[in-house]
């Protein structure tokens, strides 16, 4: 027989990109049953990722309308340029499908969840290592014939179901398959497990698919904008400070100054807020171009001076962990009703350095002079602790530590931090008249200093290294951008390899 | 307890003859084994045939009823050796494993089996893990078939063909006294399709008959002079018998085509892809008809000389389609044609990729090249190439970027390497080792096969080599020289419980004792052969009605002479784990140091615990449910916890604070409260943002009463704190409850 058949049955090729544990197999089963129930021929197969668990899996299904007397020969893998429906259970996996050529303009319907499951590479970065969703989405949108996209994960979770159900619903609603919604629902009903929530998620998915164009994602989902400066302060005590912001600072920086002020007064007290504004004002006075319309220096100063002044310490941690909002959030997290019994256990491990930092300067200095007493104290104090904050005893322990706020300013740590702050600002002040870009980058370098113990030590040493680099770079035309690049490099990895490389490229000492 | 239960699916194995059977390839193979009157089945799990072992385990009652013996073997070598039951007796036996790794392990037994030959049918079902999604070195089973002269079946990826191959395989094995290999590629194993069943058959001659009437034939034993006789027998009797059987039974398929001057020779397993490629080139239809004649090799080895002659005679050129390298078949084809004096040109690796998966796209390109050379008329009219659709779609008014989408995406997409699961008990072992390395410096680490191999990936970056299943210990052997050379550090070797029982006990531990090695051995004892899907092992701490479990690894290693053993019964205890590793690595005592790190595979545990917990809550029992959380306001956004833990449920979230531009850590809903992140934050003195929250389901009256009082007292304190904060607030505060 060499005559090719003139019969061209309707056949549909579906590729599914899912991560391990997302239930891609269930979705495949449902699609196969849907088609088989309608008398179609269905063949499905999969290639699991390297891992059975966290890797990505590609499933592939071919559906062919009934061809009585003739059995179609079906392929076992998605062919670039020959896919009708692409389902992706995660945004980057949708991108990966496009990269693999599985999305053909003018042909492929793409059904994808817009949520992200971050890869380890994105999570390991000390700063923000998250891939650019907007760019990927943009390309997926451009390539797809028709795009159905929503947070299918949240949609399913909202109905107490799993993502396979909402994706199955979105497939129904997309109209990419010649089967009615009722037929999709019947498949889930026949499966007999978790029917009610699955049906709800299915319907939610279908509704999303039928609605208009998918919404645009926010530019950077990790970005939090500053709140607008309030007209009046919540506490009358702060009203004068609020007015001072309006009177003495450039308008573009107001919101940031509001955030900064709120942070430092919450951290310490209203007087501390006044000092905060003093620091920023002093810096702006050194700016020959202070009236610049963009208010860049004021914005950066407002942000990073506030961060520097509210350094992470045990008092702050104890304060944050004893708040009423925090108890309420915890109850929400475990989905507790008003009468449910909920508890929590905190993991603390203060080192002797932190304990010494809390002490008044004189006392800490005296202790430094009696190493035996200090070591004895260290052996008593520096160990891992579990504090059960739902008990009165545990809560009181933290409550008392939080109460040390009143003595914070006389502590050794505060003196050290204040010293750092002043040295850093003096540096910025010096640079500002000569190289605005470099001064801005110097301010932004404060982002490196954060956290506790080792993390704090690492950040501080890199911060110091960048301050030195700034001095070395002074006078160079590209000093600002160069320092910016160094900062980005310093945030990239914990080992400091990227920073060393960057320093080398710039011809600076390691 | 295996990861996936087939308890429901295996009921299909009982269906009467003539029923349409729908299911996965693996289930179809099991059904075919029962239909062919198999007496015993064994094997070793591993993707893509793990499920075959799981199906057989779940089908135990059905197998028992049919008088079929099943056991999970200790290794592939052990499984292959079991086929010796078919040497002297007319019993059919089947074994299965992941190839080529399993075939490597089994090859000694297989070579012996193939030399002496078999009386009863011996079928070796290999899951060919080659190409996309593979987790092993890229080699093919073909070489094993050739070197030991076992026939290799490579059926079309189509359930009826696969089922038929099982039936044919046994018959071919018996007709030729030769073991037969049946190769199933990854996608065939997971293929959903249907076929029409036959009746299950009890073996006519049983293993009981064999045991009660033992037989031996010294000519079947590999000992000179019989071994020389075997080689002659292979060439003079078994091979011709195979040629006759394969020809008469028409095991290979022919597709006639009108383009008679050319042809394609393809392996059965690749036939569907070849047909799809031809269809995309406009040279085939959806129903398997092709304009280019096809010779489909459902038998990959041996090539049938007369059939090749018949197909190629009168053709200007043929294209040989076999993936991977070396190009055994292409070479074979050339030899045959030259021997017959045919001048048909043979194409293959000149037009097709020399290595890697033969995807439809790769085949389409190669076949297009073949047609352009030998039948350019095929392209006189525009071919309905898939790429044409792409071009046609440009006119939709959407502006195009100058670069292709793929090129633009490549740098944007984060890679997704495999890693350990949520709550995996192995993660704290590696976190502990990372912490010990901060004190003692880096060590040479030999890795093994198993989930713990993921320690080589980020964030751990541990492990320098992996030489084979259970060989983690022995692959550190050369470094035992450290004692002799006065090295300041020992080598460290990892091994899983799976690898340990596979051969690690002897090749790694006993060998280390015998050779007075000072290396450190970490045996990861998570109750199961977890990487292959959670099958039980001798050291499993679960009750399995069909197996004897609960044989502690510590007893085994002490039994072979290890003196220094530390068993950590809860790997999540980072402090103890770290202390044990530190002690082992800094010990000056002679002899190997063994650390046994025990905690149950979380995936398996959750599968058992989750429904049990839900049931208990339903029944009104007091149940405490835990999960971890992170205080966003306390988290610094440095992500040191991610670098040292890597738990998938530890993820990123917006800080919710404009002054904190870096995303903060967050624990998602998949958390199983293993406590690792808290332990690590504590042991590594990271940060105090982690907390463990719990909710008590069905608390008692006293507990409720106490809780009420506590909450009242706390609320009073919190209200005071709230008022103080409100007094210094710029933005209105969230009101307390």
TrEMBL record, chain A:
Stored InterPro entries: DUF6537, IorB_Oxidoreductase, Pyrv/ketoisovalerate_OxRed_cat, Pyrv_flavodox_OxRed_cen
Domain (Pyruvate/ketoisovalerate oxidoreductase catalytic): residue spans on this chain: 20-206
GO MF, one example: oxidoreductase activity, acting on the aldehyde or oxo group of donors
Domain of life: Bacteria
Pfam families the UniProt entry points to: DUF6537, POR
SUPFAM superfamilies: Pyruvate-ferredoxin oxidoreductase, PFOR, domain III (SSF53323)
UniProt keyword list: Oxidoreductase, Pyruvate
Residue ranges constituting the DUF6537 domain according to the UniProt record: 258-467
Keyword Endoplasmic reticulum included in the entry's annotation: no
PANTHER family linked: INDOLEPYRUVATE OXIDOREDUCTASE SUBUNIT IORB
NCBIfam families (UniProt xref): PRK08312.1 (NF006179)
Protein name: Indolepyruvate ferredoxin oxidoreductase beta subunit
Lineage: Bacteria, Pseudomonadati, Pseudomonadota, Betaproteobacteria, Burkholderiales
UniProtKB/TrEMBL annotation, chain B:
Protein keywords: Metal-binding, Oxidoreductase, Pyruvate
Protein name: Indolepyruvate ferredoxin oxidoreductase
Enzyme class label: oxidoreductase
Record-linked SUPFAM superfamilies: Thiamin diphosphate-binding fold (THDP-binding)
GO molecular function, one term: indolepyruvate ferredoxin oxidoreductase activity
Entry EC number(s): 1.2.7.8
Domain Thiamine pyrophosphate enzyme TPP-binding: from-to ranges: 448-595
Transmembrane regions: none
Record keyword Metal-binding present: yes
Highest taxon of source: Bacteria
Pfam family, one: TPP_enzyme_C
InterPro entries per the UniProt record, alphabetical: HACL1-like, Pyrv_Fd/Flavodoxin_OxRdtase_N, THDP-binding, TPP_enzyme_TPP-bd
GO annotation terms (biological process): small molecule metabolic process
